[in-house]
Backbone:
């Protein structure tokens, strides 16, 4: 391994700023490894040394601190355009040479990153195994007998084996997460549309997203900061919205109920998933069982329903005229989609909308859900013998994400006794990308381990993800009918509110049951003496929704500053003192739920 290993963005930046490394030195040393024998079938096209030197020289004279990805080498999945380099999508007869780079690739280059090559993939991004390529089956970074995961196979293995600091993949059904899990990486599948898809060969254009592979969640976040931008020329582009505040102590994470968990006979993965749940609990999370059956049913629509016809639509002209050019498994999957009718697509869409409504009820109970990224792993020989069924098994926990418009981060959490990586996926509604990456960083830090397949241990600076302000979000403390599961909670959830923590107020309030209703409401009045602490929930709400929420609050209630037991002050419900004169003092109960329970009994 070269002296600058591991290739994390943080460590490279430190060396560049200290003057102990230059981009020219990096590409000179890295070039030897890039152009060595490709034993894992990572590459479809490697940039020649002279081209790498051109990129490095373009940074000469620039202050390393002036560019967020100064001198950082990265790889590009070969269904994403890099100017002057063929794009094959894993099919030689489909190849073309783009004149300009994909929007995201160009943003990364403009930020100082250096592209080093185009990576192998399951042909036309159809598969989760990494074996469906005329350029060879991409092999796992830890054990070459096993699949690398796909379709972004080469992108994952390039990072895992120290050939790039990060890479771009794409993710329609799990292609940006399954390879991460199988190669001990972080794989972030962004909210659909927040990364421009212009310059990407589509698989299912309505569902695709570019994804990011990195050694750490911190590095994935750095790449997202650069890559994320609205693209007026991409019809599917959408503006990123602020993530909710970082999930702190008391965050609620969903764990699939027993009947929803499937490990396909892999007891090692079952045990490792249990340990990952323990890790989240140790980080202050509260595990909540959740029924993900609506999500799993939605997942089946992706390949067992008419959405597969969108893959045919993406390459229809080429498929119809060059059908023999396709990999046999890819040809079978895409070819059979021609039997679907438009009416079938509408029927499936209607069913999806029903399932999405059912699935989204999950977010009333939890902030985030954790699942295994994959329930098991297979050898290449296993997959060759049974390509469709085993591929489908690998998508058990991933296929529904884009259909239901969720963001997801795969993070490594351990190894089997045989030395194969295991990882979990954290997912939540759209636009929670930053919150997911922060939580993934904490999980990665707590889980320990090494970076990719490099054998290098992570340094604290490698895992450090800067704290962020809760820009675009207001924290609101609620004490009554707006709490989880109570009648007015929908006024928060319908506005994109997310529960941040369960806590108590400082001991300086009296608590009253106000007359009127339904629903009944309490009032907190701050007092100079004889106060009590009151049970609270703190919710994060998008700023754009805050005004309409406050406007609907009836007198004698209002919004003011509520003091929490740890001394913090947040926006929250307060009550006019005059209203307390005619209300029942219920301070002895210490909270609204306890009072309601006493009334019910």
Residues:
């Amino acid at each position: 391994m070269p002296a600058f290993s591991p290739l994390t963005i943080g460590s490279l930046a430190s060396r560049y700023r200290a003057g102990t490394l230059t981009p020219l030195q990096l590409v000179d040393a890295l070039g030897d490894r890039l152009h060595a024998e490709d034993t894992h079938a990572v590459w479809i096209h490697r940039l020649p040394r002279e081209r790498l030197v051109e990129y490095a020289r373009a940074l000469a004279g620039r202050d390393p601190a002036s560019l967020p990805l100064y001198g950082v080498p990265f790889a590009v999945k070969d269904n994403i355009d890099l100017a002057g380099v063929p794009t094959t999508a894993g099919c030689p007869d489909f190849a073309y040479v783009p004149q300009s780079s994909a929007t995201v690739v160009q943003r990364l280059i403009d930020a100082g990153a250096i592209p080093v090559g185009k990576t192998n993939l399951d042909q036309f991004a159809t598969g989760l195994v990494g074996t469906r390529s005329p350029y060879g089956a991409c092999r796992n970074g830890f054990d070459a007998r096993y699949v690398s995961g796909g379709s972004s196979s080469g992108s994952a293995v390039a990072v895992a084996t120290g050939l790039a600091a990060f890479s771009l993949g794409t993710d329609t059904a799990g292609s940006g997460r399954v390879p991460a899990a199988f190669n001990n990486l972080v794989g972030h599948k962004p909210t659909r549309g927040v990364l421009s898809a212009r310059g990407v060969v589509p698989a299912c254009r309505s569902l695709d997203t570019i994804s990011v592979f990195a050694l750490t969640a911190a590095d994935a976040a750095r790449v997202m900061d650069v890559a994320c931008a609205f693209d007026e020329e991409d019809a599917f582009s959408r503006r990123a919205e602020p993530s909710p505040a970082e999930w702190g102590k008391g965050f609620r994470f969903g764990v699939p109920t027993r009947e929803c968990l499937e490990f396909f006979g892999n007891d090692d993965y079952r045990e490792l998933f249990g340990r990952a749940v323990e890790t989240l609990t140790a980080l202050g999370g509260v595990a909540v069982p959740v029924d993900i059956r609506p999500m799993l049913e939605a997942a089946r629509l992706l390949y067992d329903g008419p959405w597969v016809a969108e893959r045919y639509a993406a390459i229809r002209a080429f498929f119809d005229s060059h059908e023999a050019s396709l990999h046999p498994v890819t040809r079978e999957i895409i070819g059979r989609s021609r039997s679907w009718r438009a009416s079938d697509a509408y029927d499936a869409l209607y069913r999806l909308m029903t399932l999405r409504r059912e699935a989204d009820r999950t977010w009333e109970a939890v902030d985030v859900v954790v699942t295994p990224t994959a329930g098991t792993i297979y050898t290449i020989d296993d997959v060759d013998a049974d390509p469709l069924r085993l591929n489908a098994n690998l998508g058990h926990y991933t296929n529904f994400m884009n259909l239901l418009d969720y963001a997801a981060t795969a993070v490594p959490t351990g190894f089997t006794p045989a030395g194969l990586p295991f990882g979990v996926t954290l997912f939540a509604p759209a636009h929670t990308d930053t919150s997911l990456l922060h939580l993934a960083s904490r999980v990665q830090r707590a889980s320990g381990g090494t970076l990719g397949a490099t054998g290098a241990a992570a340094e604290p600076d490698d895992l450090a993800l800067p704290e962020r302000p809760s820009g675009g979000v207001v924290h609101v403390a609620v004490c009554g009918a707006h709490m989880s599961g109570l009648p007015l909670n929908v006024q928060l959830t319908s506005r994109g509110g997310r529960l941040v923590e369960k806590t108590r107020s400082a001991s300086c309030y009296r608590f009253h049951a106000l007359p009127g209703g339904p629903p009944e409401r309490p009032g907190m009045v701050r007092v100079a003496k004889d106060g009590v602490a009151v049970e609270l929930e703190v919710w994060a709400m998008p700023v754009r929704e805050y005004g309409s929420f406050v406007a609907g609050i009836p007198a004698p209630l209002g919004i003011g500053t509520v003091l929490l037991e740890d001394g913090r002050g947040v926006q929250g419900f307060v009550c006019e003192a005059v209203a307390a004169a005619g209300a029942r003092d219920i301070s002895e109960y210490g909270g609204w739920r306890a009072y309601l329970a006493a009334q019910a009994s």
